[in-house]
Amino acid sequence: MPDERWPAEWMRAVLPLSVLSVVAAEETYGYLIARRLDEAGLGTVKGGTLYPILGRLEDDGLVSSSWREGEGGPGRKYFAVTPAGRAALADRSERWAAFAAATHGLLTTRKADA
Amino acid sequence: MITDTEKYRRELLTALRLRDVEPDRIGEVLAEVDSHVAETGEDPRDAFGAPADYARVVGEGRRGLTPSEHRTRNAGHALMGAVVGAVSALGITAVVRDDETALGVPAWLTLALGVTGAVVGVVLLAVRVRVVRDPRTGRPVDWSQRWFAPLVLTGYIALLGVCAGLAAVL
Q1: Cβ <8 Å between B48 and A47
Q2: Residue A80 sits in which domain range?
Q3: Would A100 be classed as within a structural domain?
Q4: What's the CATH code of the domain at A52?
Q5: Predicted-complex ipTM score
Q6: pLDDT tens digits, A64-81
Q7: Cα dist. A100→A19, A50, A66, B126, B159 in Å?
């Protein structure tokens, strides 16, 4: 997968929901979340972008966090989805799908016209 | 490597303090940097950006003091400190020299007022300073904050001592 750089404003819009979705799939920590996002095709997400998003999700009560001992390392901060986070993810995923379909429809119509 | 991360964390700590981010949040942010860098082997500057920039991102949307509010608050603290120090100095000088009054009230009362003001000030300082702790160990990250109140108290006692000494000699 080439390291695609999506426009920054697209990433800003989609990252919180994407991060929430990764955390909802399983309880995990920062480095693995970044790797999952990369594997999903969103490109490299730096720690300086990722942790503030996780912090905001936690402030909003959508995820919770806990520190655990690492293997010889300085410990990892694990993030887990909360019931409110699961509800928000379901709602926003649905709306995102509708939004993406609308955008896709608009863009492909234009292409067909041309 | 370790010194790079330590240096980065120190700069970030200062930048976050300047932005009045809550100590608990600062502790979390510093531990996240430490843990992430240890995991990935990245340079903290590459992963998180310059400390001042990252502090701005962390502080976004959080309530903090504006620079002018900061200046007003610091000036207020300095003024209070100066007044308490001056009243205490005049009080102890008058008491040592056996003067009846100082600042228009009995000398002992001036000294008592000064000392009371200083004690209240130092207690407030000690209570309000909230130490930044590492959430992984619960240990303080930032020792300087811990010594601030005792240091001010020591300075105050030294001031009283010098004034008493001068008053006795002159």
Answers
A1: yes
A2: 8-113
A3: yes
A4: 1.10.10.10
A5: 0.85
A6: 999 998 666 678 999 999
A7: 18, 23, 34, 55, 70
